[in-house]
# Entry
Amino acid sequence: MAIPQEIIKRKRNGGVLNEAEIRQFVQGLTDDSFSDSQAAALAMAIYLNGMTVPETVALTLAMRDSGTVLQWPGLNGPVVDKHSTGGVGDKVTLMLAPMVAACGAFMPSIAGRGLGHTGGTVDKLEAIPGYSCTQPLTKIRQLLPELGCVIVGQSSELAPADRRLYGIRDVTATVESIPLITASILSKKLSEGLDALVMDVKVGNGAIMATAEDASALAHSIVNTATGAGVATRALITDMNQILGTTAGNALEVVETLDYLTGKYREPRLHQLTLELGANMLLLGKRYQDKAAAIAALEYSLSSGKAAEIFAKMVSALGGPADLLERPDNYLAQAPVVVPVLAPQTGKLVYTDTVGLGMAVVRLGGGRSHPAQQIDPAVGFSNIVAAGTEVSAGEPIAMVHAATSEAAAVAQAEYLAACQFGAAVSYPLLHQVIG
# Structure
């Protein structure tokens, strides 16, 4: 067995680590036989020199195996999931989980909290009073066969090595390493016991990956690594040059989810992305052989009311109100101050800084600037006008939901600072499919 500094030196010098060395490192993360300084040194060596696909596969599997790996004997359908690299207004998981469940697949989604400018699925669900994202694995194992989908937060039993390594990366400027991002995402997702995974890799001025080249590199890394680990995986590179849907903010996004599931309103771009991701999940999981048939099944899950019914049952089973769909106003927080953002001039609307809009939600109180911060679920933006829309001077392009008039005024200014009004810029929703 090598000593830690030998492993660090090999990677520092551009060498390739073998599986035993990688497993020793991951074991060192869980039993503290690697100190924080040694783990940080190896993370920096990986950041600077990269990893081969076999190295990344070995790191991913070792981190997955540092905790429990769920198994699903006896299910009469594929176990599938999707993961987004993060954006603003991305509430697709909330809509998609009950839809694919209604189509005969099973989706045990282990979701995260907001990070930086990106909203977190857990934070959105916790805007529902009583909904508990902290569940023992026994509860998840019980509910998935019954409901078809369960969306919960990360468990301490799943991929514990990733939590320590991520904390070290966060304070040592090594977060952006593609092999380390890949292993972090996949160690958690593969611990769910999946048959198939679809990745939504965001690109644009509201994404972590701002360029097509970076997004493609991450997508290829994830697909190659997950496939090498034995899970059928496909990555869709999708646009994040504007807020997804018409809302950004936790309770507001739950309202949009309910409107979507019940048919009250489905924003076209959001609907297209949801169908694309869902169809690929059903195809990879071999639930359907034809994309048109998969999309038709997803559409029927909505029109029949089955997806809405499953979502309601999941909310109730995890502690939320049984009548959320019928009486959302009774349960979801509403901000005391709601004011419009008015276009200062006539022209076609273009969003130039979607990250800035995400940070505006954080500053309203809808996200965290430090881990222990409490979130205000009521704040954010709604009635968001889509990019490319011709607007007139004085016309509302969004509504600000805030705790105070002062906060609302700041958010109005920040919203306008992220916009331009002139010639339209067209961004395709789906850039590339990999895998």
